[in-house]
Design goal:
Layout: H1 9-31, H2 35-60, H3 63-83, H4 85-88
């Protein structure tokens, strides 16, 4: 009965993957007392999700919501890597 939804799962799972990684990185921000940075990144992420989903839904229909979800969390992951680059990639 889920055959109609089958094409939505790949991008939903990709979005969930990046979401879990960004949660872990978010805890690093909180542990380093970078609360304001964490809040700003979360607001940007939620805004990106709304904007990307709206755009992709208009372009591709229902599957666009999953594109926006995955794209928003991918961008949030990249932002987190940039913010934490000195911590994560120090020698």
């Amino acid at each position: 009965q889920f055959q109609g939804m089958e094409n939505l799962f790949a991008f939903q799972l990709a979005g969930d993957f990046f979401k879990m990684i960004t949660w872990v990185l978010g805890y690093v921000l909180l542990a380093r007392a970078m609360t304001l940075t964490f809040i700003i990144v979360e607001i940007v992420s939620c805004s990106l999700f709304a904007l990307l989903s709206t755009y992709f839904i208009q372009q591709f229909g229902t599957i666009g919501a999953t594109y926006g979800y995955a794209g928003g969390f991918l961008i949030q992951f990249i932002i987190m890597l940039f913010v934490l680059r000195k911590i994560l990639f120090r020698k």
